[in-house]
């Protein structure tokens, strides 16, 4: 009976190992498919925003990876924010700067980055009051693009003191891209 128990224990161990291996494969496959889905949504949003060549895709991918390393937020989360900003009308050439401002605003206000992104993207239309709660106000110039540029500049100005406490990639994302 001793050899039978040993054989039974070995069999149970083998079965547990196979189950764990299968679960790992399923989880890995799901994570891969989720990443592909998020990337395809970002690329679709870029195309919809007029970037048919996807020239911004690689830059946004790089920013998402850098923000993942420095904020601990998964790059799929960052890409979802970038996609949301694009679908809310932010131009592809502004996404990097607005994404960096989003994470700064998130830290300043204590709201989730997705909510900070919504506040920024909506500010030109009806969301100005949301930002006033946090002491961020902008003057209406009559030019929507200029209003948005002023808003991002104001967020950057208001969060400049946070730059020392933020991971360097967030604090300098725009400056690195502008150089």
Name the poorly predicted regions.
Answer: 168-179
Strand content: under 5%
Gross morphology? elongated
Q: Which class do the helix and strand fractions yield?
A: mainly alpha
Main sheet specs: none
Count the beta strands: 0
Overall mean pLDDT stands at: 77
Helix-strand pattern: HHHHHHHH
Q: How would you name the oligomeric state of the polypeptide chains in this document?
A: single chain
Q: What would you report as the Rg, rounded to the nearest angstrom?
A: 22 Å
SSE blueprint:
Elements: H1 2-48, H2 57-71, H3 75-87, H4 95-109, H5 113-122, H6 128-132, H7 144-158, H8 168-178
What does this structure look like?
The chain is an all-alpha fold and 179 residues long. Helices cover 73% and strands 0% of the residues. The protein is built from eight helices and no strands. It has helices at residues 2-48, 57-71, 75-87, 95-109, 113-122, 128-132, 144-158, 168-178. Helix 1 (2-48) runs parallel beside helix 3 (75-87) and helix 4 packs across helix 5. The longest helix is centred in the N-terminal third of the chain and has 47 residues, at 2-48. It is elongated. The termini are far apart. Mean pLDDT is 77; it is low at 168-179.
Supply the key terms.
disordered C terminus, mainly alpha, 179 residues, 8 helices
Summarize the structure.
73% of the residues lie in helices and 0% in strands. The protein is built from eight helices and no strands.
